[in-house]
Amino acid sequence: MAELHSQTGFLQAQGAPLYYEVAGQGEPLLLIHAGVADHRMWDEQFSAFAQHYRTIRYDLRGSGQSPYPAGPFAYYEDPTELLKSLGIEKAHVVGISFGGRIALDFTLTHPEMVKSLVLVAPSVGGTQPSELVKKFAEEEEAYLERGDLDAATELNLRMWVDGPQRTPEQVDAQVRERVRVMQRHAFTVPVPEGAENLALQPPAITRLSEVRVPTLVVVGDYDIPDKLELSQQLTDQIADAQLVVIPGVAHMVNMEQPEQLNQAVLSFLTKATNG
């Protein structure tokens, strides 16, 4: 394996530091992690993708080493600031779960900066939560109000790692533990009184026809029904989008089946680059 050119650092963006890492050379590739994780969820992708691309990953606000700003901020503007600080005009963008929502919002806001888009089990702004997701959110809030961070974390593992079709015992214990550490840390990150997330308006779900870049949608067949239905909707409404369903895996596709995910993404990127 070739030696990678790598760097880490903090960027001052939207009033607070943003932690990022860069490795490899070639066309830029930005990785945006899930809400239950931080940049470390991409460990199995970062080095693999950096063999072919200049690969960037960062911690979202309130995750890992990136604190919340003490004022209004937009998640989808952090990629703008980060790429510009690195001298990058255009990048391939990969986002998973909440990171998929950010990737899509970023693409709609700055289409000139996106060469291709990969959405893995994404959330999308403007969608209505199902009863399953509402119940999850209510239970999570109840645990957090009681200060039971361990129970709130386990609830997230059951929802987003195990999925509705599996018990914890049927899931890779190392994957569960890695997500547990990242999610529990996120619950301890303080939220300044003035922090306010500015959602994209109009929301992305009403603007899918605006996406004009090559797009790949990936989802695991054990994920919650919302994600399977939304992935199909994205594929239907984004021009020429492709859908890949990975069997035997729930929401954390890239951690449970890294080789399959990497192969699907690298194959797509090769076509997007040369197409």
TrEMBL record:
A Pfam entry, by short name? Abhydrolase_1
One MF term in GO for this entry?
Answer: hydrolase activity
Keywords per UniProt: Hydrolase
Q: Where are the transmembrane segments?
A: none
Q: Which InterPro entries match?
A: AB_hydrolase_1, AB_hydrolase_fold, AB_hydrolase_sf, Epox_hydrolase-like
Q: Which residues form a coiled coil?
A: none
The answer to whether UniProt assigns keyword Ribonucleoprotein to this entry is: no
Indicate the segments forming the AB hydrolase-1 domain, all copies: 28-258
Write the protein's name.
Hydrolase
Q: Which organism is it from?
A: Dictyobacter formicarum
